[in-house]
Amino acid sequence: MRTEIYEFWKQHPNLDPSLKAELETMDDAALNDAFYTDIEFGTAGMRGLLGVGTNRINLHTIRKANEGFARYIESNGEEAKKRGVAIGYDNRHMSYEFAMDSAKVLAKHGIPSYVFASLRPTPELSFAVRYLHCFGGIMVTASHNPKEYNGYKLYDEKGCQLVPHLAKQVIDRVNAVEDPLAITVDLSKEQEALIHVIGEEVDEAYYEKVMGIQLNPQINKSDVLIVFTPEHGTANIPVKELYTRCGYHFVAVEEQCTPDPNFSNTPTPNPEEKGAYELALQYAKKADADIILVCDPDADRMGVGVKHQGEYVLLTGNQSGSVLIEYIFSQMKAKGEMPPHPVMFNTVVTSDLGEKIAAKYGVETEKTLTGFKFIGEKVAQYEINNEKQYVFGYEESYGSLISPFVRDKDAPQACLMLAEAACYYKAQGKTLVDVLYGLYEELGYYEESQTSLTLKGQEGAERIKAILTDLRNSDLSQINGTKVVKMEDYKEAVIKENGAVKALCGFTSSDVLKYYLEDGSWIAIRPSGTEPKCKFYYCIKGDSLADAHEKTVRYQKAMQELTQ
């Protein structure tokens, strides 16, 4: 533990009283975890456990981050300051307080802010930055993490999360703050007047844009019933409103529609985990629903369940993304609406199936690192040079963006489009699972999955680093008896193939390893940017779904043995 920093906090007269009380109850292990490092920006901003300490999300670390952000804005000139910052927040503990403190720190620098009157989705915050012509944005959220977490995301003037070279400019200024506890939020009346409340006008503009993505707005919606849950989060009002306005039939999981920061009525708010669907499945079986849609608390991710042959099948993010690609691109082609030079974006850990579907419709695929900010950055580049036209973007982690008036993952958009797809295919006597299986038969059988090692605290962080280092140094030639034909190292920026080493270009340095296997499968490993986990991604190709599953089990066991 950094004893001098702990003592500094303990003795500081400005330490928030509730945090001081927490500090006095902590044992040595808890104190070490709270103070051994400073909380850092990851793939989705700054995210961590709530509580006292430099390695926690609290009023003081939030104020420090905002002080750095304010100085960054000032460095961009008076015009940047005048444009101000849009601020949104979710249902979590302290989200409102952190949002208001963010506005107050900015106000002390003469920077106006536009704060939502109540909780709103992350994609709507991204939209608000663009709609209000702000210089930046702040979203207070921990996305799909457990209730003990909160977080803080920063956005640029295009509504995209800060990419590394911009984030570094903020981080350098954050690190220059010597005493975060000295930052106060007492405002003059003139400074208070810089904080503006926003709401209905932005909501209506956002809804109008989302409804504009419909490809077949007049489709028969009477035969499809949707069970929807926001998992206590921000999707509750917007998704219900969009479904009502567009004429979809849905049943909401009412117990999970309250903005409860404890997530009391769900085992997990993460649609990547089966527990998020438990209550929705009960609703679906009772109502005989066709599909289940689950949004995470900040409404950037969407999970899908589909009634197929009398049972509810949960789709992975890769699978729901593939179904969306097939529906959107097939309709664009049929209507003659595919633009020239179309491009789709996904990440280096996203399934190959989506890329094959895109190629079938003449759509190029470009890959980015994990983190939707990299996709948002690409969208902005092509918006300027007009060399390619964006038609879709998605990640394996249950997030997609259909129309880029938002520059982040957008679950309300995905919910609306997936509902339309369900109606379209039901009219043909198909479920969304039928569509997926048809794609497997046409393009190849894949099983995509993800496993992770949860390794908490300082010791866990060091162990995760060691796992990547050991793999990097081992120069694997085979996994479970299957030859490794190529390895990509995104940290060292090299590709190793057939005994040769060449440069891996076009990516920011990131601690990711990806192994391509002789049978057409691949395995990737990376530390999570938002949780104490080492993640393993599998895209396994087989001669059938059963074969792909059997091979996946074997590969997962082999990787477990390699990293013990």
Keywords summarizing the entry:
564 residues, alpha/beta, eight-stranded antiparallel sheet, seven-stranded mixed sheet
The termini sit apart by 27 Å
Q: Which percent bin holds the helix content?
A: 25-40%
Low-confidence stretches: none
Global Rg = 23 Å
Strand content: 15-25%
Oligomeric category: single chain
Anisotropy-based shape: globular
Number of helices: 19
What can be said about the biggest beta sheet?
A: 8 strands, antiparallel
Structural class: alpha/beta
Number of strands: 24
Mean pLDDT: 96
Please describe what this structure looks like.
- With 564 residues, this protein is of the alpha/beta class.
- 40% of the residues lie in helices and 23% in strands.
- It contains 19 helices and 24 strands.
- The strands form four sheets. Strands 17, 18, 19, 20, 21, 22, 23 and 24 form an eight-stranded antiparallel β-sheet that branches.
- It is globular.
- The two termini are 27 Å apart.
Short description:
Helices cover 40% and strands 23% of the residues.
Task: Give a topology summary.
Blueprint: H1 3-11, H2 17-23, H3 28-35, E1 41-42, E2 45-49, H4 59-75, H5 78-83, E3 85-89, H6 95-108, E4 113-116, H7 122-131, E5 136-140, E6 149-155, H8 164-175, H9 189-192, E7 195-198, H10 200-211, E8 225-229, H11 236-246, E9 249-252, H12 278-287, E10 291-295, E11 302-308, E12 311-315, H13 317-334, E13 342-347, H14 352-360, E14 364-368, H15 372-385, E15 389-395, E16 399-401, H16 411-426, H17 432-443, E17 445-454, H18 457-474, E18 478-479, E19 482-489, E20 494-497, E21 500-503, E22 513-517, E23 522-527, E24 533-542, H19 545-562
Parallel strand pairs: 3-4, 3-5, 4-7, 8-9, 8-10, 13-14, 13-15
Antiparallel strand pairs: 1-2, 2-6, 5-6, 10-11, 11-12, 15-16, 17-24, 18-19, 19-20, 19-22, 20-21, 22-23, 23-24
